[in-house]
Amino acid sequence: MLLDFDRDELTEKCNSLFEAIITTAKRARDLNEQEADLLEEYKGNKDVSKAMEEMLNNKIEPNYKE
Prior knowledge:
Blueprint: H1 7-13, H2 17-32, H3 47-56
Helix pairs in contact: 2-3
């Protein structure tokens, strides 16, 4: 089951909702490929939910290319 997240919380962490979605999707792909968990415990069980929880807990952030 996917968890429900507040859009405003996600956009506070990034410049836009699109950027938050791309960042969490990339992290979810890493988690799917057996990347190490960044939190001790997750509320959700899907990789996308885990990635969003990590972002909301300041464990991941967008990778800006300059």
